[in-house]
Amino acid sequence: MIVACLSTVFSGYHLSYAVPQTLNYISLDAKPRYHQVNAFPFAHPNAPKGGYIAFPAIGTFDNFNSMNGKGSAADGVQYLYDGLMKDSPDEPGVAYPLLAKSVTYDPQNPAFAVFHLNPEAKFSDGSPVTARDVVYTFNKILNEGAPGIQIYFSGIAKVTALNRYDVRFDFKGKDNKELPLIVASVSIFSEKDLKNKDFSRVTLQAPLGSGPYTVKQINPGRSIIYQRNPQYWAKDLPINRGAYNFDQIRYIYYRNLEIAFEGFKTGQYTLHTEYSARRWMTEYNFNAMNAGLIKKIEYHHRNPIATQSLSLNTRHTPLNDIFFRQALSYAYDFEWQNKALFYGKYKRLQSYFDNSELAATGMPSSDELKVLKPYLPQLSALEKYGVMIDWRYPVSDGSGFNRDNLLTARRILLQRGYRYNAKGQLLDKNHQPIRLELLITQDSLKRTLMPFVRNLKRLGIQLDVRQVDSSQYLERMRNYDYDIIPNLLPQSLNPGNEQARFWTTESANQPGNYNYPGIKSPVIDAVVQQLINAKNRDELITYTRVLDRLLRAGFYEILTYGKDAEWYACWDMYEQPSTTPQLVIGLDYWWVNPQKAQKITQYIQRKPS
Known about the structure:
One of its GO terms (biological process) is microcin transport. This protein is α+β, with helices and mostly antiparallel strands. Helix content is 27%, strand content 21%. A hairpin with a 3-residue loop joins strand 13 and strand 14.
């Protein structure tokens, strides 16, 4: 590690910031554990190469440029590209060298970051990766990328090639410690490849990358095969040693998960991620499973549980009424669902960061109160109450009737001026029956959503479930053309810039972004900015917990259920290291057992499931 002077001339730039350092890693807070190792402990450095792994994909695809926000992005494009550095699968907020061998910046006050590229870095056609390619990539993203991506990178002031292998990022401030980590993860394109192409267009020709795989075969809308590049320039870097062992990675497209699962049974793809407790508990009794050729894996991670919810579009009436949204939350009956539908395998989410230290639990701490106090006058009485309590969603008796909670919901609605007509329909403030639409694309969701629909009907609210195809669903999502949608939002242990895309006023006004409830709260805007600018881990935790409280108190979404484990089923032809990373299951470090693969191939070819 080289510590630079307080005032240093670096490649023609005068740097006057406190303690810039040249490091072979980026870390938000924790001391990296693996910056001096030759291989990760969860990798087998000499793992054999060969075979394939196949995944399902839902819907269709028509675009290999995932940065322009057009069309339906192809699955698996991440295997085509390298970033400047690569996130650790075992440490939150830590990244190690990939295209860049090191970075010079001030970890505490990053007003700039200079990435020093590895001279050995090559695109898959053998051409070198240079600082100009990095500048070109970011200029394209900042000027022509999807609107939400532009917001995500809005903290970048400019990107400059200092020479052939050094590229400098200047940031608009020095308070966002996450920005160097964010820019380090971006896929880098080739200027030579893209300069004569229209970046904004949908394309089935993947931009040239430097990653471990290239595109071998495309069956438009149906399948994609990626082929391992044996000349991959970075295969011997510590972060990649023992990784990317499959000769092929395949994605097979299906209309929905139910059809996909039938394909899994017959070996059309080899690794299935299970999201249904019912299926996990009752439907793994088919021939291949009974023959011992498929194994089930429950991987317990240390990440926040992905936030599953019903997003209530506050852009529409009467969902713009916080009391109406509060009443809807009483109609959701988790206890009955978990007993009758989920075999007790789920927990009710009480936080947007459940299963982590980021979750707001109990009463606000003294640090949380310091953050909240200046904003309390800007909150409604209901929001003030919500942020100050030990939050718990309504609990039912699990009988399926949910009588007490529905009576509470009815009382809230009547107190806020809603009325019923002679038919028992709930009327809005204009004396019109309230009718809402719940938009879905997967038929399997109906089973878990119908209890909520029935409970709303008991409240006099007509909720129509409308199923559309994936293309129409994406377009309506992009334009916020829905009343209620089921939403699944992954969260990380290091929340940052992405929170602005989820919850802020700017993102609510921007088509194609991720603020599905349409939240426009000056208080949430301010807290998100404080979270992004947190100077240390303690501050980050405090601001995230405050954000958690504000989101819950606004009843923008109804948090539903989740689990602290990921469920996988795979054809038993893979091996993996004995040590598993803490944050992901580590599929990139698996490899094929040829003997098992041969046995399974023979089974699939001879015996239908």
